[in-house]
Write a structure and sequence with these properties.
Structural class: alpha+beta
Shape: globular
Number of domains: 2
CATH topology of the largest domain: paralog of FGE (formylglycine-generating enzyme)
Helix content: 25-40%
Number of helices: 10
CATH superfamily of the largest domain: paralog of FGE (formylglycine-generating enzyme)
CATH architecture of the largest domain: Alpha-Beta Complex
Distance between the termini: 39 Å
Length: 415
C-alpha cells in the first residue's frame, strides 16, 4: 500500500511564534488530513467488511472510524466547545474503548456484534464531528487555541494509531476467508535495502534515551534519561524470510530447547509451524497479504511473528534480541537500513515506566501507563504506520504471543 501524507502530527502545532489565525489554519489542516486518511483506508471496504471482528484483539473497521470520532467528541468538543450537542446519546457507550474515567463502555470482544449504527451512519457521525471541530478551530480565541493544541496533537496521533490497526485488523479478517480476498490488489511489500557491513558496533558508553525535546511525544517516551549501553553489535538488517525458512527447515518450531516455556506451550497449542498468515500450497510457502495470497518473498523481512518466535530464532542463530535502549542508540546513528517503515521490531525489554515516569492527569492518563505490565516493547514502525507518526523514541508494545501486527526482528550480538 502506498502511504499517503496524513499529517506530520509530530510537528509542534502550538509554536509560541504562531499568530492565532496561523495556528487555527494549521490545526484545521492537520485535523482534516488525518481524518481523510482514515476514510481513505476504509475506502476499499464494503459495509460487510467493516462489520467483521475476527478475534477479540481486533476491532471492526466501522468501530475504529467511530471510536476515533468519539475521541474528538469526548475530549475536545465535549469539554471545550460551549453548547456542543453530541451526535447520538448512545455513541459514547458504544465507542469508548478503555477510558474508565470517561464512563461505561461496550465489551471489547463484542464490538463485531453491533450491526447498528451502520457504516453509513458512522460516516454521517464523522462528518458531523468534523464540521464541529473545524468550526471550533475557526472561532476559538488565541488563548483557547494555545491551550488545546497539545490535546489536538494527542488526538491526531491517536487516530493514526487506529489507522494502522485498521489495516492489521482487516488483514486478519481477510486471512480467515478461504478465498483470500485482497484489500488492495496492487499492494506489495516494500523492498528492504541491503548493503555494507552486516553489523553496527556500539562501544560501551552512557547514552541518553527517551524523547529529548518538546516536539510531540507520548508520555511513555519520557523522561529522557541516561543508560549504559554496549558493548554490543546490532544487525543493520532485519531478519529475512529466507533466513526464517532455514530456521523452519532446521526444526526450529519443534526444538523445545530454543523456546521459552510459555512460548513453546503457545506454539504447541496453536500449532505454529511458520509465521502468521503463511500457508503451504502444493509444497510452496505462500503468505496472506493486503493483496491477497502471494508467494513468500525470500528477500522480504519476516513478518507476523510473536515475541516467542523472535526469541527462539535468536537462540537458534546464536544471537540475542536487542534491548530497546540498544535499539534506540543504534537507530540514532542512522546506520540501520530498515529501522522504519517495514516491520515493528521486537526487543527483549519489558514495557515498563522510565525512571521518574508519571502519567498525565485525567482520563488521558489511562492512555499508556496502565498497560505497563506483562508486555514487550517493539521499536521502529511498519509499512502500515501512517507517514509522520514514527520517531526514534516511539515505544510500541504488545503481549508476547501476539503476531497479527506487522512484527519482525533484528538481532544483537554480544561476542
Amino acid at each position: 500500500m502506498t502511504k499517503q501524507a496524513s499529517a506530520t502530527a509530530a510537528t509542534q502545532l502550538s509554536s509560541p511564534s504562531s499568530r492565532p489565525d496561523d495556528l487555527a489554519k494549521r490545526l484545521e489542516e492537520a485535523f482534516l488530513a488525518v481524518r481523510n486518511e482514515t476514510e481513505r483506508r476504509a475506502g476499499p471496504l464494503s459495509p460487510e467488511d467493516q462489520q467483521i471482528q475476527s478475534m477479540p484483539d481486533a476491532s471492526p473497521t466501522k468501530w475504529h472510524r467511530a471510536h476515533t470520532t468519539w475521541f474528538w467528541e469526548q475530549f475536545l468538543l465535549g469539554k471545550h466547545a460551549a453548547g456542543y450537542r453530541p451526535f447520538h446519546p448512545d455513541f459514547a457507550f458504544l465507542f469508548n474503548s478503555y477510558y474508565v474515567s470517561a464512563g461505561p463502555r461496550h465489551a471489547r470482544n463484542h464490538r463485531g456484534d453491533i450491526t447498528r449504527p451502520s457504516a453509513e451512519e458512522i460516516g454521517a457521525y464523522r462528518k458531523y464531528v468534523d464540521a464541529a471541530v473545524v468550526e471550533f478551530f475557526r472561532e476559538a480565541g488565541e488563548d483557547k487555541l494555545g491551550m488545546i493544541a497539545p490535546l489536538v496533537e494527542v488526538g491526531l496521533n491517536h487516530e493514526q494509531q487506529h489507522q494502522e490497526l485498521m489495516l492489521t485488523d482487516i488483514l486478519h479478517a481477510f486471512a480467515q476467508n478461504p478465498v483470500y480476498p485482497a484489500y488492495e490488489p496492487d499492494w506489495c511489500f516494500p523492498g528492504a535495502p541491503r548493503g555494507g557491513d552486516d553489523w553496527l558496533q556500539l562501544n560501551e558508553g552512557i547514552h541518553t534515551v527517551g524523547h529529548v525535546d518538546d516536539s510531540f511525544h507520548f508520555d511513555n517516551e519520557k523522561p529522557a534519561h541516561r543508560a549504559l549501553v554496549g558493548p554490543v553489535k546490532i544487525a543493520r538488517h532485519l531478519v529475512s524470510n529466507a533466513e526464517w525458512l532455514n530456521f523452519m527447515q532446521d526444526g526450529g518450531y519443534r526444538t523445545a530447547t530454543l523456546w521459552l516455556m510459555d512460548g513453546f506451550a503457545a506454539a504447541s497449542k496453536e500449532d505454529w509451524q511458520a509465521p502468521g498468515y503463511w500457508r503451504e500450497v502444493d509444497g510452496q510457502w505462500q503468505v496472506m497479504t493486503l493483496a491477497g495470497l502471494k508467494p513468500v518473498d525470500p528477500n522480504a523481512p519476516v513478518c507476523h511473528i510473536s515475541y516467542y518466535e523472535a526469541d527462539a530464532f535468536a537462540r537458534w542463530s546464536g544471537k540475542h534480541l536487542p534491548t530497546e535502549m540498544e535499539w534506540e542508540v543504534a537507530a540514532r546513528t542512522k546506520q540501520l537500513d530498515d529501522a522504519f517503515g517495514l516491520v515493528w521490531q521486537w526487543t527483549r525489554s519489558s514495557y515498563s515506566p522510565y525512571p521518574g515516569y508519571r502519567a498525565v492527569e485525567g482520563a488521558l492518563g489511562e492512555y499508556n501507563g496502565k498497560f505497563m505490565v506483562n508486555q514487550l516493547v517493539l521499536r521502529g514502525s511498519s509499512l502500515a504506520t501512517p507517514q509522520g507518526h514514527s520517531r526514534v523514541s516511539y515505544r510500541n508494545f504488545f503481549y508476547p504471543h501476539h503476531r497479527w501486527q506487522f512484527t519482525g526482528l533484528r538481532l544483537a550480538d554480544y561476542e
